[in-house]
Design a protein that fits this description.
Oligomer: single chain
Strand content: 25-35%
Strand order of the largest sheet: 1-8-7-3-5
CATH topology of one domain: Immunoglobulin-like
Mean pLDDT: 79
CATH architecture of one domain: Sandwich
Helix content: 10-25%
Distance between the termini: 153 Å
Shape: elongated
Number of strands: 13
Largest sheet: 5 strands, mixed
Low-confidence stretches: 231-245
CATH class of one domain: Mainly Beta
Number of helices: 1
Order of helices and strands: HEEEEEEEEEEEEE
Structural class: alpha+beta
Length: 245
């Protein structure tokens, strides 16, 4: 038989288990309520961290890396400018290039032009350069004239290109573009004879036609004579012809 002490021990263990289960449920409820109530605050805190960290990293990078960064620059373009022409056949084209010595020492300059070429044709023509060589002191400038005649060496309605190489302390270039248009001369032909006439219908039930001059006659004079020839005034009277109906 179960002794009194064993019964008391079993009862105590059962009560302890019940109390432990209640405590666990209470703890879960407290934790869940705390998470539910505190989650907006936690989310706001995490969001502020995500917004702040990149800025902190950038500040740290710029402040700590100033002495380590190597500054860089880009080279200027080889072709510094362009000259564009739109010319007709048998015409003259002209342009200018201004060169300035911005260095601290005198420089000898030479200019050399290539031949004009298109995608399907090579003209074999080079522009004239004046002057083609010169020396510039520091701060001095020189205007160079570029000109050429557009003749039969160029195909109409075609685009040509070439370059002028400028050699001083180093080499630069100026790009030349030329569009050639066909040379059209204004012209028209006029036939002038007797005054044209037109025929207009009279009333349809009359079966008549009326013939009248299309233009007003102008007084004509024979050479050496003051006597006018031709009809004057308004258009001559209409000639009426009867047609078969």
């Amino acid at each position: 038989m179960e002794t009194k002490a064993e019964a008391l021990l079993a009862n105590a263990a059962k009560e302890y288990q019940t109390a432990l289960s209640r405590w666990v449920r209470f703890t879960d409820e407290v934790v869940n309520n705390s998470m539910r109530l505190g989650r907006p605050l936690i989310n706001a805190y995490l969001q502020s961290l995500s917004d702040t960290v990149p800025a902190i990293k950038e500040v740290a990078r710029t402040s700590m890396g100033k002495g380590c960064e190597i500054p860089e620059t880009q080279c200027p373009p080889y072709c510094v400018c362009e000259l564009d022409w739109d010319a007709c056949e048998d015409s003259q084209i002209k342009g200018s290039i201004n060169i300035t010595n911005t260095g601290q020492n005198a420089v000898n300059f030479t200019l050399q032009a290539g031949t004009f070429k298109s995608e399907k044709d090579e003209s074999g023509k080079k522009p004239d350069i004046t002057p083609a060589s010169f020396t510039l002191a520091p701060g001095a400038s020189q205007a160079v004239v570029v000109k050429m005649s557009v003749g039969s060496d160029f195909d109409p309605n075609d685009r040509y290109e070439t370059e002028i190489k400028i050699r001083g302390r180093y080499e630069q270039c100026v790009k030349l573009r030329l569009f050639v248009r066909r040379n059209t001369k204004p012209h028209c032909s006029i036939d002038h004879g007797e005054i044209p006439r037109r025929i207009v219908a009279h009333n349809w039930y009359d079966h008549f036609q009326c013939e009248e001059l299309c233009f007003e006659p102008i007084k004509q004079r024979h050479p050496g004579s003051d006597k006018p020839v031709g009809t004057t005034g308004k258009v001559a009277a209409k000639a009426v012809k009867k047609t078969k109906g």
